[in-house]
Structure formats: C-alpha cells, structure tokens
C-alpha cells in the first residue's frame, strides 16, 4: 500500500484532543502491563452502587472459557445513562431525533424528559409482567421509543434483544423463540426512505410461530390501522396512562446480562451474543469519548441503526453514559435525495459523524453536487465502521466532507467486541487511509499464521487477527450455548480470541483489515452467514442444492453470489430467479437479497462430496487463473461450465 498517502495529526486536532501521542503511548503501555490497575482507575468513569474490588477474572484456555470484569460490582446502566446527568444536564438535549421525512419537525429530548419517558416505559414493562432477567425483544424503527425501550429494560434488569426492523417475520420468530422472550415491542409501521414497512403485521406473522404467552407492545408511529389481539396486544400510549411516573433503577451485578444481539456466523443459525452490564458500559463510554474526541456540548451523530451493535454502543449506551447529545436518524442517506446526510449535519451543527464505507461510496457515486452548498464547518471528527474503506472513498470523505480539516477514525470492531478495538485517536494517531491503525487501551492484537496458528513476531506480517487477552467490553457467551461460544472463538487458535478476520501489519505496526477468512460475508456493512442464505435457498421446493459466496461489489463492498442447482425437471428462467430472490427476502429479510443467482447443473465437489467453495469464490471474483488444484474434484469438468455460465451472467 505504498501509494497510500500519510495524513499526520494536524495541530488543530492535537490542541483539541483529549489524548495526544505521548499520552496514548504511556496509557497503552500501562493498560497492557497492569490491566488491573488501569481498569480500576478507568472504571471510575461510571457510578457504581457497589464499587468493584475484583477487577479482572479471565480464562482464555479452551475449553473452559470464562470472562468476568468487575465481578463483585453493582450498578444500573440506565441510571448511568440518565439519572446521574440530571443534576447538571437535566435541560440539555440527550437525543435529537430526525424523522424520515425532512418535513417532520426534529425532536429534542432533554435528559429530564428522557428520564420521564424511560421510567414510564419501564413501569409499562413491569405491568406486562416483565421482571429482572426476563428477555424482551425490540423490533422498532429508529424512533426515540427504541432508546426508551432499551433503557427501560436496563432500568428493571430485563435483557433486551433488538431485531433489525428489516428482518422478516421468520427471522424475528427465530430470535423471539431462541431467547424465550416474554414481550415483543414493535410499532405500527416503520417509515424509511419514503416507504413504510408494516412492522406490526410482521410481528403478527412472527407471533404465530411463538408461544401463546408472548405479549406484544406497540408504539404508534404512523397512526395507520393495525390488528390488535385482545389479551396479547397492547398500545404503549394506552398502557402509559395506567402506570406511575417513578421507577427506581434496580441494582445489577456487573456481570448480569444487559442485552443479547443475534449475529451471523460461518455455520448454523445466528448466535445470541451476550453483553453484560459493567464492562460493556466502561468500554463503550470510554471509546465513545476518546475515539470521537467527544467534548461536553458536542453534537454527535452515528448514522447506524439500533438493530446493529453500532447503534447499541454508539447511538445509545456510550454517548448517553457520557452525558452527550446523540442524534438519531430514522431515514436513509438518499431520501429525499443524496444530500440528506449533509443537510442533517448542517441543520443540527453536528460535530462528530460516524457512518459506513458503503454509504460513503454510494454518496460519492452520486456526485459532489449533493455536498456543495452545505455548511459542514461544524464537523470535527469523522468516523467509519463496518468494513474496510478503500483509500479513494477515504480521501473523498476527508476532502469533500471534512474539507481536509477533520481526522477520520476508521474503527475496527465486531458485535462480539462490544466496542472499538483497533482505531485511531484524533489527536494521537497519524492516519493512513484504509488502515484501522492501532489498538485501543487494553487490546493486545496478535497476528497468527492461518494454518499453523503460530504467532508472527515480525512487525510486518500477514495472517489472521486474534486478540491475546480480554478487554472489559468483550462478549461473555452465546445465549444458551456456552460451548458454541468456546468453539467458535477459542478452539481453532487456542489461548486467543479469534476474530474471523484476516489482516496485515505494516512496518509501522499499523493494522489493515483484509476481510473475513470464514464463511461470513459483509454486505453493505451487514454481516451475513453464507450458510443462512444457503439454507433459505434450499428450503425452496425447486432447489436441490445451493452454495453462496461473496464477490467484490463497487458500492456494497461484497455482494451475495448464489450458485443454485435445481431439482430434476425444473428449468432455469429469469422468473425463477426472481422467485428465489423473493424467497430469500421472505426467509431472512431484504438485506439478504441475492445479487446474482447462477443456475449450476453441477457444483465442484471433492470425492467425499464436500463443496469446494474456494473455487466458487474465485469464479465469482473473475479469478479464473487462480482456481488452484482442481484435480481432486469428483468431476473436474463442472468448473468449465461454471466459468462459461458465470461470464454470461455478468
Ligand atoms: C465485521 C464485524 C463493528 C460494528 C459493525 C459491524 C468488519 C468492522 C471494520 C473496519 C474493516 C471492519 C470485520 C468484522 N469490520 N469494522 N473498520 N475495517 N473491517 O459489526 O456485524 O459484527 O461485523 O465487520 O470483518 O469482523 P459486525
């Protein structure tokens, strides 16, 4: 990557920043040499009901994985995100809400108002029978009630599990059932990009596949008619009239679960990633403050959806724990047109803006005219997350949006990590476009040889990325399946947390994430297990076999490429392609919609019947010359057919 230009820390960034290079070096060293002392100090950023005396208890040795931080401490996450700010910041805006339509007036919700809403909401949940430890599934649009619902759960010790509003009824039902939720929270409709998703109707379909005792609480967002089933379905606004205003936060152990969030892996159904209370909040609040260089009074905007971990950690928990003003946006970057992001930044004088490379590439593709004429001078820090950013998009973001004056923090992390692990700090890190740069405090990245698992000691290295020790924000288990947790992350490379990503470390020790090395693909920053799409495809009666791989896509980063073998007697057609595409959308949701479907009379298999995905990946990437050894295939000739058909498809 010698063609990549170095962007050194500018004086203005250094002046403003909470952490400079010397501090970073000193703090990083201490965090590694003396984690107990380091975290004993930094846990003080939270209000504890009972201050922890035991800081870290971790075992990374397979199979007895155990991760505990601050284990004898007690706190309440909602009290840390709301109550403790009331004295000094009661009147300050906690949440700015910008609706899908620019014609709807924005809302400014103060900490005082947030407190009132969350207490009411918590009392409604209690009234519906929810108590400490119960699971609540949240299936909502990007509306303030989504944050109220999360914080209300945290207030009473219930464990929330948010399901992205773009997921289908089937996917929603699977998640409700997996965590055995007591209540589902939804809305009548979800407006997005000028269209509406019928959330309550989706919820009704999902609930048909769930136990009779699951209750449903509905937020009125749009006001359209929906079906309400007596005894099962309740309106939030009606319930709120029947409950009191006050709700004391419950004391929770630091290791009590805060939420479950389902994410895709390389095999089987999505895993319920479990995050707990104390370590997660220390981690998200500290990274939010230092990575975005957040100062009191700043207006901060993370453009993610709360259905993903980015929304959990960096719209709700991190910012609110810091008493920040966090902007929540219901819409999409291209509605009404491709200037919406820039209009929102101008309107609310946003200081920090955080989005995904796919959005940057899409907007860059629409042309600079959508940016021009907007006053973006409030911006101080830009961020990216979700996938590697190509230097071209980085430079566009830097020059066109940041006017060459704001640092870009390219934050590498995962649902599993709770918050940022490898990231620049605005006043400390010289930037290289496309590199997530250096580890955050307490993070010990290691590069391993993929095959042997040997640690690569040389600074310059290429291999798989693992982490040698725990950090407070790490996931603790897979809900209901601790064995799967150990097997997924700690078995292949023993003694380490394995990220599933490949990476390169350059001569300066900077990390460059190269993408997943497992059967997970990253589509527009959304994580998709190829196995999930395959099982959706083969559940269609006309499909006998399917293999799904990622391929490079200009805007989405990766697209979903499906090889499909039909049942005997079925004929390939454009119509069938659409039918299969719709089928996958129904099984999983629009985000899993196949980009390309290639009908393949045969798939490349070993003699023992295993599909050679490596070959399929290479064909999808147009890399016909590097298919590798095909002589071990049961029928090597299928490869030529696949290539011919692939060329026709594109
Ligand atoms: C995967 C995790 C982290 C919140 C959003 C996605 C990829 C994430 C970066 C980055 C290169 C990145 C990795 C990772 N990824 N951030 N800055 N540079 N790749 O969370 O759905 O759990 O996906 O996203 O491949 O493993 P997720």
TrEMBL record:
Which keywords does this Swiss-Prot/TrEMBL entry list?
Acetylation, ATP-binding, Ligase, Magnesium, Metal-binding, Nucleotide-binding
What molecular function terms (GO) are annotated for this protein?
acetate-CoA ligase activity; AMP binding; ATP binding; metal ion binding
UniProt: Mg(2+) binding residues: 538, 540, 543
Chain residues that bind ATP: 386-388, 410-415, 501, 516, 527
Q: What class of enzyme is it?
A: ligase
Q: Name one GO cellular component term.
A: cytosol
**Record has Lyase as a keyword:** no
Role of this protein: Catalyzes the conversion of acetate into acetyl-CoA (AcCoA), an essential intermediate at the junction of anabolic and catabolic pathways. AcsA undergoes a two-step reaction. In the first half reaction, AcsA combines acetate with ATP to form acetyl-adenylate (AcAMP) intermediate. In the second half reaction, it can then transfer the acetyl group from AcAMP to the sulfhydryl group of CoA, forming the product AcCoA.
- Stretches of the chain forming a coiled coil according to its record: none
Under PROSITE patterns, the record lists: AMP_BINDING (PS00455)
Q: Which Gene3D superfamilies match?
A: 3.30.300.30, N-terminal domain of ligase-like
The AMP-binding enzyme C-terminal domain covers 532-610
Q: Where is the AMP-dependent synthetase/ligase domain?
A: 83-469
CDD domains, alphabetized? ACS (cd05966)
| Domain Acetyl-coenzyme A synthetase N-terminal residue range list | 24-81
Name of the protein in question: Acetyl-coenzyme A synthetase
Biological process (GO) annotations? Answer: acetyl-CoA biosynthetic process from acetate
């Amino acid at each position: 990557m010698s063609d990549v230009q170095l962007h050194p820390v500018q004086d203005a960034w250094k002046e403003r920043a909470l952490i400079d290079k010397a501090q970073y070096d000193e703090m990083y060293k201490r965090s590694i040499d003396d984690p107990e002392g380091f975290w004993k100090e930094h846990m003080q950023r939270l209000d504890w009901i009972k201050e922890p005396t035991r800081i870290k208890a971790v075992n990374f040795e397979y199979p007895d994985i155990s991760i505990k931080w601050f284990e004898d401490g007690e706190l309440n996450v909602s009290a840390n995100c709301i109550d403790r700010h009331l004295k000094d910041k009661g009147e300050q805006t906690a949440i700015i809400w910008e609706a899908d339509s620019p014609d709807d007036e924005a809302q400014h919700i103060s900490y005082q108002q947030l407190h009132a809403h969350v207490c009411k909401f918590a009392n409604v949940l209690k009234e519906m029978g929810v108590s400490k430890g119960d699971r609540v599934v949240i299936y909502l649009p990007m509306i303030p009630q989504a944050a109220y619902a999360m914080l209300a759960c945290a207030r009473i010790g219930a464990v929330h599990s948010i399901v992205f509003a773009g997921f289908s009824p089937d996917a929603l039902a699977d998640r409700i059932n997996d965590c055995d939720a007591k209540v589902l929270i939804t809305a009548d409709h979800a407006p997005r990009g000028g269209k509406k998703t019928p959330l309550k109707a989706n919820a009704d379909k999902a609930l048909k596949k769930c136990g009779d005792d699951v209750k449903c609480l509905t937020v009125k967002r749009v006001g359209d008619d929906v079906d309400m089933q007596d005894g099962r379905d309740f309106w939030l606004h009606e319930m709120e009239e029947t409950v009191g205003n006050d709700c004391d936060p419950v004391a929770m152990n630091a290791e009590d679960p805060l939420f479950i969030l389902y994410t895709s892996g390389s095999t089987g159904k999505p895993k319920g990633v479990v995050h707990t209370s104390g370590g997660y909040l220390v981690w998200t609040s500290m990274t939010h403050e230092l990575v975005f260089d957040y100062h009191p009074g700043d207006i901060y905007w993370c453009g993610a959806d709360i259905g993903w971990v980015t929304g959990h950690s960096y719209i709700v928990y991190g910012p609110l724990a810091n008493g920040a003003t966090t902007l929540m946006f219901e819409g999409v970057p291209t509605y009404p047109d491709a200037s919406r992001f820039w209009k929102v930044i101008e309107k609310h004088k946003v200081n920090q803006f955080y989005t995904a490379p796919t959005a940057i590439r899409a907007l860059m593709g629409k042309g600079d005219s959508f940016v021009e004429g907007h006053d973006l001078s409030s911006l101080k820090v830009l961020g990216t997350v979700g996938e590697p950013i190509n230097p071209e998009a980085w430079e566009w973001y830097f020059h066109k949006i940041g006017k060459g004056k704001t640092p870009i923090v390219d934050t590498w992390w995962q649902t599993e990590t709770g918050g940022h692990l490898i990231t620049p700090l605005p006043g400390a890190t010289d930037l290289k476009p496309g590199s997530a740069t250096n580890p955050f405090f307490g993070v010990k990245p290691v590069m391993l040889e993929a095959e042997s698992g040997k640690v690569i000691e040389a600074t310059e290295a290429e291999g798989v990325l693992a982490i040698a020790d725990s950090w407070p924000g790490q996931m603790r288990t897979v809900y209901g399946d601790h064995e799967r947790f150990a097997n997924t992350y700690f078995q292949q490379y023993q003694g380490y947390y394995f990220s599933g990503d490949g990476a390169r470390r350059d001569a300066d020790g900077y990390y460059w994430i190269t993408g997943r090395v497992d059967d997970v693909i990253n589509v527009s920053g959304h994580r998709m297990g190829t196995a999930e799409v395959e099982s959706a495809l083969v559940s269609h009666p006309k499909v006998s076999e399917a293999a799904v791989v990622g391929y490079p896509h200009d805007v989405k980063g990766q697209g979903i490429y499906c090889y499909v073998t039909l049942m005997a007697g079925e004929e390939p057609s454009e119509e069938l392609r659409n039918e299969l595409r719709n089928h996958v959308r129904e099984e999983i949701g629009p985000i899993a919609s196949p980009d390309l479907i290639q009908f393949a009379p045969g798939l490349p298999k070993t003699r023992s019947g295993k599909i050679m995905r490596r070959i399929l990946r290479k064909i999808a990437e147009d890399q016909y010359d590097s298919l590798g050894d095909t002589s071990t295939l049961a029928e090597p000739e299928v490869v030529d057919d696949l290539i011919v058909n692939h060329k026709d498809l594109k």
